[in-house]
Each structure stands twice: as C-alpha cells, then as structure tokens.
Fold this sequence. Notes:
Elements (H helix, E strand, L loop, with lengths): L1 H11 L4 H7 L4 H5 L20 H8 L14 H14 L7 E6 L2 H9 L19 E5 L4 H15 L2 E5 L5 H5 L6 E7 L11 H10 L4 E4 L4 H4 L9 E4 L14 E6 L9 H5 L1 H7 L1 H5 L5 H11 L2 H20 L4 E5 L9 H7 L5 H5 L9 E6 L3 H9 L5 E2 L9 E3 L10 H8 L5 E5 L5 H14 L1
Parallel strand pairs: 2-3, 2-4, 4-5, 5-6, 10-11
Antiparallel strand pairs: 1-7, 6-7, 8-9, 9-12, 11-12
Helix pairs in contact: 2-5, 5-14, 15-20, 18-20
Amino acid sequence: xxxxxxxxxxxxxxxxxxxxxxxxxxxxxxxxxxxxxxxxxxxxxxxxxxxxxxxxxxxxxxxxxxxxxxxxxxxxxxxxxxxxxxxxxxxxxxxxxxxxxxxxxxxxxxxxxxxxxxxxxxxxxxxxxxxxxxxxxxxxxxxxxxxxxxxxxxxxxxxxxxxxxxxxxxxxxxxxxxxxxxxxxxxxxxxxxxxxxxxxxxxxxxxxxxxxxxxxxxxxxxxxxxxxxxxxxxxxxxxxxxxxxxxxxxxxxxxxxxxxxxxxxxxxxxxxxxxxxxxxxxxxxxxxxxxxxxxxxxxxxxxxxxxxxxxxxxxxxxxxxxxxxxxxxxxxxxxxxxxxxxxxxxxxxxxxxxxxxxxxxxxxxxxxxxxxxxxxxxxxxxxxxxxxxxxxxxxxxxxxxxxxxxxxxxxxxxxxxxxxxxxxxxxxxxxxxxxxxxxxxxxxxxxxxx
Length: 450
C-alpha cells in the first residue's frame, strides 16, 4: 500500500500545478479500490474495522497505512493532505507532508505549540528561562489573540513583535538563545504587509530555528514558501483554498528535516506527520471528512481562480487609488507600495509562463483601503454597499468587506490595533468573481453616497 502510494506521488510530482490540483494522488488504482468512484470517496464512519488482532495492533502502532479513527486520520482527509503537500511542494526538491485541521486557528496552534510545550505554564522556571518567539505584529486577529492571550498571558511565553517585517535588523535584534521560531503572514491580514522569505529563512536557520509562514491569502497558486526557504506553511483553508464558503478547515504543510532547538528528532524529520499522529491525536483538532471533501473540490480550480481574482483586485486597487474619498490603498501589487518589490520577487502565478510565455506576477484577491475621515465615515461607506457582502470572511468567490477595527481585530484592543497598524477607518475588501466593473461601480456609489 505504501509503495503504490509513493509511486503515485512520484508520478504526480512530474505533473503541472493544475493537474495536481484536480487529481492529487487519487488515481486509477485508488479509484478501483473504492468501487470505481471517479471522485475521492467520503468516509463518514469515524472508525476503521480490523481483520484480526494483528491488523489492529499494527495499525495502532503506526506500523502500516491505516486510519483507525478520524480524530487521528481518515481516508478523505488523507487525499486532501496529499494534494496540499503536492501543491505547496510544487517546485521544491525535498519531501513535503501535510496535516489537515478543523480550522485555520487550529492549524496555527498545531504549527507553533510543539515548539513551546517543554516549558512551564508560568513565566520562568527555577533557572529563570523564559521561552520566546518572534512574530510580525501584522497578523490576523485570531492569530494575534492566540499569541498574546493564550501563549503570553496564560502560559508565560514571551511574544516579541516585529513592527516592520521588511526590516531584517528588527528581526535580528529580537532573537536570542531562548527563541523557538519566527512567524509571519505573507501577505498579512488586513494590512497586506510582506517580508523577504529567503532572507528571513536564512536568519532563522542560522539560529537553528524554523520559519513558519501563514500563506492563507496567497495560496500555493501564487506563493510557495517552502521553495523560498520556509519550513512550515499554515493555511486557513476556509478562506482562499475553499472559495465556495461551504467548509471550515485548516492545514499545516512542512518540509522534511526542519531545524529546531527543542523537540524529538521524529518531529524534525517529518513535522506534519509527527503533529498529525501525536499532538493532533491528543488535542483532537481533527477535520470533518465532509469539510475535507468540500475543500478538495474547490482546490481543483485554485490556480485559474486566483489568477482571475488577482487581476480583478489590481484593477480595483488602481481605481481606489484615484478616488477622492480614499486616503490610502494597501495592496502589494501597486508600484510604490513599501512591500511591492519584495512581493514581486516572491509572488508568481504557478505555471504562469505557460499561459503568457513569461512568468506572471499575481498578488492575490485581498486589499485594504482607508476612507477619508474617521470610523464613522468608514461605517457609512460600508453600510452603503449593495453588491459587496458585509461579513468577516475572505477568499470567497463572492466579494466581501469588513471593518477590521470593529470585527476581526476588535478584541485586540486599541493598543493591539496600533501595534498591528490597523486604523479605525480601514476597510478590508476580498475581491470575488463578479465582473470587476460591477465591483468598482458598487465601491464608487458607496464612497460617493457616504
């Protein structure tokens, strides 16, 4: 079973991005083993049946391919994980594995917690050691709260915040012998900040610690951090990967052989599988097989969808730049933006050269803009949308907007929003698949009527 799957994985690594997204490792042999089903089957039974006691023991000892119980593994989840590993590993020479989780926040927790578990629950121990990690302050609100409240306030793990992720010296100045990892979003939510992944990976590896990148907004269609030197990639698969909005899911994807100052060798050798079989088994953030199937179905059109949404978003950003009611626009695809050059070096449409004859930069579907005036002005614009949906979600095939200061980043408080540079009058817009002229028209009427 393992050999057959390894052969199929090897075969698929020779294919183009779209082919991988459509098929993953689900080929003819797997289909015939599942009653000839053209699509990956959904296994809703939570438990596996065993032929005899030998089968039971071998499966529970992880000595053979098995799924035993959905909290640990499941065939449907396995097909999703293999597809994500192939997509994130596209263009990367090394081995890659993935672990699906019940949400993006679960993925962030499972990607970071293993580096912190060998420490006491209160700040410092008898030796005075206090663990820390270094993270960009420009983060999704859920990640910010996990780091600042669950890790720092409750467990005494020190979070060292980087204000300017492009300033490598700021990162350098925060790392010491007790630093466990570096963390950043690329691009960040909602400020669209970017950083130099190869430079930061080199810095991390020089200190024998991993670089963890949240690439939710970009997806592997536009950015593959492992190929740029990162060690672990996390996704809220609920967002851009699963554009239909029918599922909550998360994933962490890691290359084999990561650096770490702590943890067992097994964790370093295959981080994602280690997390899946041990910490995830015990914490229980397993993904529903139904949600896995929903995500997998949306993955099949990922590249073409992200291409379309990126091109539309660039047009919207250029329109907003010229609008008299807009103070500033934040989008890495705009020339003159602080992170544009770094984004242009790292964000490329997978196989874009096969479409246009040359590599093609694409910068994603999300942008931010500040409304001229204060929060009341932003509220008036927000309330005037007629086509754009008012919600906290993003990455949908439908255009969605929110005001982060009163929604996704509300619980951070004023000090936390100031640290992350989230102004009160910022509107975050996730551009969807509607015709771009209709999206622009709705923005214009809302801005002018408010």
